[in-house]
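Need fresh eyes. Consider my entry:
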Amino acid sequence: MPRIKHKTDEEVLDEVLPAILVAGVDRITLREMGAVAGLSASTLLQRFGSRIELIEAALDRSTDRLERELAEALPTGPDPREALARWLADLTGPLANRELLVGSFQVLARDILIEARNRRARHHLDLVRRRISAGLAAMGLAPATAARRASLVEAHWHGLVIQWAVHGQGTLADWVHGGLLVLLDQLGHD
């Protein structure tokens, strides 16, 4: 009689991703991932094939989730500046501490060297930039101006993430949100 799965593969992937980011793609063991998921290393092998396939599946699931979030429309509200800043801050939500942030940097560094993953990362950044441009247009900037300034906002967003990693004050989402509001206030008055 086959065993009943008490956790879906998706649940397992969601549970092991933070452990992968903290330990590092090259250092995490099946035993460590199994401990996090509450499953044996042999069960993980049966379900995912290999340590590398499990890691790739967890990273792919995370990337797929990001892609779905990026495909959704920007939140709206009475203050488009606030909506844009909150949306970008919320994208950083899964990176709740420095260890997870450093792990995501390591995955990014690895992905830059793998062409298919690099293309996907560029695609995501293009989606982010288009969403930022739409948010800036909602703030009243002319579409051409909004498109040009979207790159500036994106760069500032990335810079705020790195700044928080160094200074580490408050939550990453709050740090990003506050820093973006300052920039968006300036862009809205130019």
Remarks:
- The two ends are 69 Å apart (CA to CA).
- The chain has two domains: 1-65, 73-190.
